[in-house]
UniProtKB/TrEMBL annotation:
<dbReference type="InterPro" id="IPR006581">
    <property type="entry name" value="VPS10"/>
</dbReference>
<dbReference type="InterPro" id="IPR035986">
    <property type="entry name" value="PKD_dom_sf"/>
</dbReference>
<dbReference type="Pfam" id="PF15901">
    <property type="entry name" value="Sortilin_C"/>
</dbReference>
<dbReference type="GO" id="GO:0006892">
    <property type="term" value="P:post-Golgi vesicle-mediated transport"/>
</dbReference>
<keyword id="KW-0677">Repeat</keyword>
<comment type="similarity">
    <text>Belongs to the VPS10-related sortilin family. SORCS subfamily.</text>
</comment>
<feature type="domain" description="PKD">
    <location>
        <begin position="727"/>
        <end position="771"/>
    </location>
</feature>
<dbReference type="InterPro" id="IPR031778">
    <property type="entry name" value="Sortilin_N"/>
</dbReference>
<feature type="transmembrane region" description="Helical">
    <location>
        <begin position="993"/>
        <end position="1011"/>
    </location>
</feature>
<dbReference type="InterPro" id="IPR015943">
    <property type="entry name" value="WD40/YVTN_repeat-like_dom_sf"/>
</dbReference>
<keyword id="KW-0812">Transmembrane</keyword>
<keyword id="KW-0732">Signal</keyword>
<dbReference type="Pfam" id="PF00801">
    <property type="entry name" value="PKD"/>
</dbReference>
<dbReference type="InterPro" id="IPR031777">
    <property type="entry name" value="Sortilin_C"/>
</dbReference>
<keyword id="KW-1133">Transmembrane helix</keyword>
<dbReference type="Pfam" id="PF15902">
    <property type="entry name" value="Sortilin-Vps10"/>
</dbReference>
<dbReference type="GO" id="GO:0016020">
    <property type="term" value="C:membrane"/>
</dbReference>
Length: 1070
């Protein structure tokens, strides 16, 4: 890392690092300093610490005497500061690691530091003390304020991520960036990694509806959506330049893959017109997009671009910011003096426009502000740009004519303000010669700079390019140390240039002297004079030109045709310009042309082509829409929802609003102009407050809020009164009379869940319009509980119900997975019925979709042909320790089962225990017909009866108990026995007796079923969870264990009767 300290300074600093490829890290570093333009060097390791490993060197851009060194973060986190051009250093420990630094453009001691953990720090003392500004900052998306655009010079612009991963644009002061002091200039979220702060402009991106939308703030005013031609439909955008109050942007449209279109904006950066189509692009080493566009230094408005035409890439040049483009005229002769036969437009000169990212190499194209007419680049002559047969070319008249100077690629360095050009061959081989030109590349002389051939790694010239000293650094072999060669050309000149050594040179474009509305004349050294220039003289004079059609570009919505006229595009309606202003005000009626920004022409056709102010005509409301501020069709119960009214056309004059409602509301009249060219510059008319989009905003058209000043038209009788009525659909409506827009929109709170029909109607004397919005009001779904029996019989219908908390949340979708089904059952109802045809354990899952949230619950149900069920109760002391949560019930169920097995000797596979929610504590004991894995030894109905009797006997003897904690014994009692076989297993009886018995049974069952259905609560089949219960359950407030009817223990019921009994006594859910 080599650095020349600064302008008119003889100090050079060099930082070298030794990288160990075996260890994969830097093992040592050295700092070198020269005070005599690189003639001698001093090693400063003892001044920074002999064991200190340095990783980076920074120089303050506003005071080159201030140097900052960073240590290797893998060893220590420190920085070393020098205020005397690196002669002495002070070391400061850091409690964070620095990944990158950003110096303030004006204040030499103000620095921003970014750490690898995405934290941004600030220092007002050149790194001696640091203060945390913000966490979660996006890399390379933090900026200092721009002088002139921000009133506070210590303002910091940054993009930060929220806890949920969204990105926001924030601003705050470097020493005061608390939650309360931060500002959000752009309302809502932005796309990640999209914030750009450049000169007077701030850019952000927001994707909605699958399309990116771009927004700009000019001079820190409110954001407006950037307006490209209607069907550009951009996929990607890159800001190329923001010079001279204008945005130059490269846009990749929907039908482009490896090319971009160049667009140029008005002063505010809002309205863009096409400058050049299909500019070639490529990918950089890190995957970044590189546009083949080069801005020529020293001449404003001059660009070179490589355009793709029929799969051929050709180089074009413009002198007026893209208004006109031309191919490059090839040289008349080649390097040997032979004529070049190249006829436009079939053959031309093509240049490679990539700029070097290495600060120590010049790249393949170069120009300098201090040498405005000289351009050096590599390229080829032919029908298209090629990567073979590359030569070097130079232009000394700003691209009008070119000369071939080398047949191979060279790096070119500008010395003495372009008075000396130094060329060094691009090669992987060692070299010992370089070339010098003192006449703008017309002739070259060969010089030797080293006696031993050197592998050149880079060349460094003094900042400002005013001297004739350069440093070449490289190595003699791949294993040798660095070698530095100082080259001083001062001895070539014996004097400084005087006035008589210069001649005037007029900038022109193929003979046209008026460029950007002015004639500019520069001073250039005469080619035969060999003197040192010193400081740059600049332009000698500038004279404005008379305006012609060439000084005007097509306005937004207009396209240039073959006859040179700007005519409306097919999608653009010029008459729509008048629709975005209020009656009694004025708007600018475009002529289809707008003067190129920074063009200095005067008079001529200026008046003819300039937009004219006209009175706004009266119009009926049209294009009315009502949307939510976030673009969604849902709102949350009990929370403010902001509704926005959008109008394409309406005229109004503001008076005090007549709001016929007690609660405070606000109305936004968002207008979506198809084209409002230069309306912002109107001398009279409404002020525009562009609305920034909120998260989820899905508006294709840009939206603007129109604020009508508190003034009436000169003739009050000509005023159109506009009436606005909004009905929220819940019995509340509001009305307005000529209400100016309010930033907060219409705020309303819905107190019930449902789908509401929101209507808005706008009327004036010329007509009316209405719009409808169907708004879904929901409340967040917090919990889902799947209710179904623990055990059921084979081939019997089972009801499963999803119980929600809260119970009313709006429109829901239920997805059911059960049995061996590979496809789910999707319903809009929270209950389903199904059967299991085989015995075993089955899992049932329900997923409930509510808006963007999906909650689920899973339960397991046992399926058998027959089983028994016994209700259990416990000694009252258990209730004192029952927190009524699922985890506790699972653990107690396991303890009860263990106690039953110990007291009865019954195999655990026959027993299933589930503690029920609620108080007093109760449980359900299931006796199951377990069979071994071979399928044999399956228990019969008699076996189940014997197991049930044994369990009841032990329970009645108080033989089942367990110790809850030391000193706390809990007894388990039998409440009642339930369940019976599905088929009659008793011996056969006579036919008549059997018929009589069956008749009695059926009559009894009919009476019982009718009685049950009269008592049954419809739609609820809720059971306590089994041992796999995972989530919190809720106890109903309408049914309590105390209200359960007492059933004698000897009463036997079938499984179906058990289910009915549970339905009315086991309600869950608040």
């Amino acid at each position: 890392m080599v650095h020349w300290s600064g302008h008119n300074s003889s100090v050079i600093l060099i930082l070298t690092k030794l990288y160990d490829y075996n260890l994969g890290s830097i093992t040592e570093s050295s700092l070198w300093r020269s005070t005599d333009y690189g003639t001698t060097y001093e090693k400063l390791n003892d001044k920074v610490g002999l064991k200190t490993i340095l990783s980076y060197l920074y120089v303050c851009p506003t005071n080159k005497r201030k140097i900052m060194l960073l240590t290797d973060p893998e060893i220590e986190s420190s920085l070393l500061i020098s205020s005397d051009e690196g002669a002495t250093y002070q070391k400061y420990r850091l409690n964070f690691y620095i990944q990158s630094l950003l110096f303030h453009p004006k204040q030499e001691d103000w620095i921003l530091a970014y750490s690898p953990d995405q934290k941004l720090y600030s220092s007002a003392e050149f790194g001696r003390r640091w203060q945390l500004i913000q966490e979660g900052v996006v890399p390379n998306r933090f900026y200092w304020s721009v002088m002139g655009s921000n009133k506070e010079p210590d303002l910091v612009h940054l993009e930060a991520r929220t806890v949920d991963g969204h990105s926001q644009y924030l601003t705050c002061q470097m020493q005061n960036c608390t939650e309360t002091s931060r500002n959000k200039p752009f309302p809502g979220y932005i796309d990640p990694d999209s914030l750009i702060v450049q000169d007077d402009y701030v850019f952000v991106q927001l994707t909605s509806g699958g399309r990116p939308h771009y927004y700009v703030s000019y001079r820190r005013n409110a954001f407006a959506q950037m307006k490209l031609p209607k069907y550009a439909l951009p996929k990607d955008m890159h800001v190329i330049s923001t010079d001279e109050n204008q945005v130059f942007a490269a846009v990749q449209e929907w039908n482009q893959n490896d090319t971009y279109n160049l667009y140029i904006s008005d002063t505010r950066g809002v309205y863009f017109t096409l400058a050049l189509e299909n500019v070639q692009s490529s990918r950089g080493p890190e995957g970044n997009v590189m546009i083949d566009l080069y801005e020529v230094a020293g001449i404003k408005g001059m660009f070179l671009a490589n355009k793709k035409i029929d799969n051929q890439v050709k180089t074009f040049i413009t002198y007026n910011k893209g208004r006109d483009w031309h191919l490059l005229q090839a040289p008349d002769t080649d390097l040997r003096g032979d004529p070049v036969h190249c006829l436009l437009p079939y053959c031309s000169l093509h240049l490679h426009l990539k700029v070097s990212e290495n600060p120590y190499t010049s790249g393949i194209i170069a120009s300098r502000d201090t040498a405005p007419s000289i351009i050096v680049a590599s390229g080829n002559i032919g029908s298209e740009l090629s990567d073979s047969d590359i030569s070097m070319f130079v232009s000394s008249d700003a691209g009008n004519t070119w000369r071939q100077i080398f047949e191979e690629e060279h790096s070119v360095l500008y010395l003495d303000q372009g008075g000396v050009l130094v060329a060094m061959k691009h090669t992987s081989l060692p070299i010992r010669h370089l070339w010098l030109s003192f006449d703008e590349g017309r002739s070259w002389s060969k010089y030797s700079f080293t006696s031993i051939p050197l592998f050149v790694d880079g060349v460094l010239g003094e900042p400002g390019e005013e001297t004739l000293i350069m440093t070449v650094f490289g190595h003699f072999s791949h294993r040798s140390e660095w070698q530095l060669v100082k080259v001083d050309y001062k001895s070539i000149f014996d004097r400084r240039c005087a006035e008589e050594d210069y001649r005037p040179w007029q900038l022109h474009s193929q003979g046209e002297a008026c460029i950007m509305g002015a004639k500019r004349i520069y001073k250039k050294r005469k080619s035969e004079r060999k003197c040192m220039q010193g400081k740059y003289a600049g332009a000698m004079e500038s004279e404005p030109c008379v305006c012609t059609e060439a000084d005007f570009d097509c306005d937004y919505g207009y396209e240039r045709h073959s006859n040179g006229q700007c005519l409306p595009a097919f999608w653009f309606n010029p008459s729509s310009l008048s629709k975005d202003c209020s009656l009694g005000q004025s708007y600018l009626n475009s002529t289809g042309y707008r003067k190129v920004v920074s063009n200095n022409c005067t008079d001529g056709v200026r008046e003819q082509y300039t937009a004219k102010p006209q009175k706004c005509p009266g119009k009926a409301p049209r294009g009315l829409r009502i949307v939510t501020a976030d673009g969604k069709l849902t709102a949350e119960q009990g929370h403010n929802v902001t509704l926005v009214v959008q109008l394409e056309e309406m005229n109004s004059v503001t008076r005090k609003p007549n709001v016929q409602q007690s609660e405070p509301v606000g109305l936004n009249l968002w207008c979506s102009p198809a084209s409002a060219v230069d309306l912002f510059q109107a001398a009279a008319g409404p002020s525009i407050l562009p609305r920034g989009p909120e998260p989820g905003d899905n508006l294709v058209k840009p939206s603007y809020a129109w604020y009508f000043p508190e003034t009436l038209a000169p003739n009050n009788g000509d005023v159109q009164r506009t009436f606005i009525q909004v009905d929220f659909g819940d019995g509340i409506a509001v009305s307005y009379v000529n209400l100016s827009s309010m930033e907060d929109g219409i705020k309303h709170v819905y107190h019930n869940v449902g789908i509401f029909r929101v209507t808005v109607q706008v009327d004036n004397s010329l007509g009316s319009d209405s719009a409808v919005l169907y708004l879904h009001v929901t409340c967040p779904l917090e919990h889902v509980h799947l209710s179904l029996p623990f055990v059921t019989t084979k081939n019997k219908e089972v009801n499963a119900t999803a119980v929600l908390w809260p119970s009313q949340v709006g429109t829901l979708t239920y997805v059911w997975w059960y049995g061996n089904n590979t496809e789910p059952l999707i319903t809009l109802e929270g209950s389903i019925s199904f059967k299991f045809t085989s015995e075993g354990m089955n899992t049932i899952t329900v997923q409930v979709s509510a808006g963007n949230a999906i909650l689920q619950d899973t339960k397991t149900i046992a399926v058998y042909e027959e089983f028994r069920s016994l209700r259990l109760s416990f000694s009252p002391n258990l209730d004192d320790y029952n927190p009524d949560i699922p985890e506790w019930r699972r653990d107690i169920s396991r303890v009860i089962k263990k106690s039953l097995v110990a007291a009865t000797g019954i195999l655990g596979q026959h027993i299933l225990v589930a503690v029920l929610p609620g108080l007093p504590t109760a449980a359900e004991l299931f006796v199951l017909p377990y069979q071994d894995p071979t399928g044999e030894n399956k228990r019969s109905a008699e076996d189940l009866e014997q197991i049930s009797e044994l369990l009841i006997h032990k329970l009645n003897l108080n033989s089942v108990h367990f110790e809850l904690k030391p000193g706390v014994q809990v007894l388990v009692h039998a409440a009642h026995l339930t369940a019976a076989p599905l088929v009659d297993l008793t011996p056969s009886h006579s036919g008549s007796a059997m018929l009589m018995l069956l008749s009695v049974v059926f009559v009894g069952l009919a009476v019982f079923v009718i009685y049950k259905f009269k008592r049954k609560i419809p739609g609820i089949n809720v059971y306590a969870q089994m041992q796999n219960e995972k989530e919190r359950e809720m106890v109903s407030q309408v049914s309590h264990p105390e209200s359960r009817p007492h059933i004698p223990q000897t009463e036997l019921r079938r499984p179906g009767q058990l289910i009915d009994e549970k339905v009315e006594s086991q309600l869950i859910g608040k």
